[in-house]
Every structure is written in structure tokens, then in C-alpha cells.
Write a structure and sequence with these properties.
The protein is of the alpha/beta class and 278 residues long. A six-stranded mixed β-sheet has the order 6-5-7-8-10-9, with helices on both faces. Strands 1-4-2-3 form a four-stranded mixed β-sheet, with no helix packed on it. Strand 5, helix 1 and strand 6 form a beta-alpha-beta unit. The radius of gyration is 22 Å and the shape is globular.
Length: 278
């Protein structure tokens, strides 16, 4: 099987899926990777004997064409994101695909060789942007109280914070590349999060050409994703998100204009955060 090295990772931009009559073909799935340099790689797969669903397609084969993201296509890289989110859904509905959204999920593991290679393939020029939304649980104002529940709870909170700063180290490496390319970086955290007071965060905010934007989630109709998450009393009915957020933009870029054309700020839903007092 032809293996693609990590430094030449294939980032899919578009795809085409079609079904064809089997005829005399001895394979079930054909996948073609169309590289941006004009070359292509072809893979053939056969279903396993335990694939009962595949038996219903015994007279059909599947052909999948994947097209690599070209260098001139602006890329928005979402670090520490889910496979599906607001930004990915907006991008999916955009039929013109003037930009591309790539996610680095928990399965990709940002701290692995695969995760590192993925962000390096996506940050290529001043038209690209990285959005880091690491888990803020370890620095949440709620957890300043929860640390007193038990030593086990306090330990879990410390481990959450340790995980954030491990992810931060990789984001810092990405920021160095952003600075060299004069690209753009976005960072999101709740206003009351302890991470804002950390020396590493202060150094990054004060020593880069960055701006901080603050907004109240409830003012823009943001909702809680997890109904079990505690909610502060509100004068309004419904599950309004009362989190007050800092939005940090580092290094200017034309990507800002592309983002504003595709995503309204009030539709951005914070990732994995706990509400704070407003």
C-alpha cells in the first residue's frame, strides 16, 4: 500500500462520490487522491467477510475522488475542536468554498506527530488562520470553588490545567510560524478564566501585535450545549449562555475579512467552557 509521509500529508478540500455497476471488477471501493501538483494515488479496497451490509451492494462498486487543498485556498485551522461545530457546518453550506476549514480533534492528538504535521500543512501563507480553543475547565471560576470539594476533585482540576498548557506549547510553536508568515491567530477563553493571569499568556498577549475583544454570550443568544451544566439565574427565559468572553486576535491578515463574510461573531459558540458571572 502506498504510504504518504506526514510532511506531505493529504488535506482534503473537496470530494466526489459515485456508484457504478460492478461488471467484472474484483474490488468494492476505489479511492483516488488527487494531489495539488496534478498527480494522483489510486487505492482499491474489498469488503470483509463480516461486512453484512456490503452484501446488499454486491452488484455495485463505490468510487470516491478526493481533491487536495490547493496552496491558494485560504485555510481556517481549528485546534482542539470537534469534528462537527458551528464553523464546520457554515463551511459545509457554502457551495463556493472560497476558504477551507480543517479541524484538529482529540483523535488527531495535537501533541502527536500526526497532529503537529497537520497544522504545519495548513498554515502556509498570510491567508491562513489558526483558531485555538483549548479546554478551559482547569481555569474555570467554578472550579476555584470545586477544588475545595475533595483532594480527588482538586487533582482532576489540576490535570485539566496541565493538559491545557501542554496543548498551549504546541499552539506557541504554531504562533511562531504565524508570526513569520504574517498570518492570523485566534484565541478564545472566558473572561474570568485563570489562564489569562498566567505569565505565559501575558507574555503572548503583551508581546504580539494583538487585540482583545470582549462579548457577553447571553447578549448574542448563545445557548448551553450540555443541559446538565449549571446555569446562573437569568431574568430571561430559556437556557441563555451568560458567559463573558475574551476573544484575542493576534497578527492582522486578510483572513479577517474572509471570516467576517462567512461567520457572524454572534454565532460563535465557545468550546467546552463553563459559564461565568456577567
Amino acid at each position: 500500500m502506498k504510504i504518504i509521509p506526514l510532511d506531505d500529508m493529504f488535506i482534503t478540500h473537496q470530494y466526489q462520490l459515485k456508484h457504478e455497476t460492478r461488471k467484472d471488477r474484483d474490488w468494492d471501493i476505489k479511492m483516488v487522491l488527487h494531489r495539488k501538483n496534478g498527480s494522483s494515488l489510486v487505492y482499491h479496497f474489498k469488503q470483509s467477510m463480516s461486512d453484512f451490509i456490503g452484501q446488499f451492494l454486491s452488484d455495485t462498486v463505490i468510487c470516491l475522488d478526493l481533491y487536495e487543498m490547493k496552496d491558494e485556498t485560504p485555510c481556517l485551522l481549528l485546534m482542539c475542536a470537534g469534528v462537527q461545530g458551528i464553523l464546520t457546518k457554515v463551511h459545509k453550506m457554502d457551495r463556493f468554498k472560497l476558504m477551507h476549514v480543517v479541524t484538529i480533534t482529540e483523535d488527531d492528538n495535537l501533541m502527536s506527530n500526526f497532529g503537529r504535521a497537520k497544522w504545519r500543512r495548513c498554515i502556509r501563507s498570510a491567508s491562513d488562520c489558526v483558531f485555538f480553543a483549548g479546554p478551559c475547565t482547569g481555569g474555570s471560576p467554578w472550579n476555584r470553588l470545586n477544588k475545595n470539594v475533595s483532594e480527588a476533585t482538586a487533582h482532576n482540576i489540576r490535570m485539566k490545567a496541565f493538559l491545557y498548557w501542554e496543548l498551549w506549547e504546541e499552539f506557541s510553536l504554531c504562533l511562531q510560524r504565524v508570526h513569520v508568515l504574517y498570518a492570523m491567530a485566534l484565541l478564545e477563553l472566558p473572561r474570568g478564566c485563570d489562564y489569562w493571569n498566567d505569565e505565559r499568556m501575558k507574555f503572548m498577549v503583551n508581546d504580539t501585535e494583538s487585540t482583545v475583544h470582549e462579548f457577553d454570550g447571553c447578549m448574542y443568544g448563545l445557548k448551553l450545549h450540555n443541559s446538565k451544566m449549571p446555569e446562573l439565574p437569568s431574568r430571561n427565559h430559556g437556557e441563555s449562555y451568560r458567559g463573558r468572553y475574551h476573544f484575542l486576535i493576534c497578527i492582522r491578515s486578510v483572513m479577517a475579512h474572509i471570516l467576517m463574510d462567512h461567520v457572524q461573531v454572534e454565532r460563535l459558540v465557545p468550546h467546552n467552557c463553563i459559564p461565568t458571572k456577567s
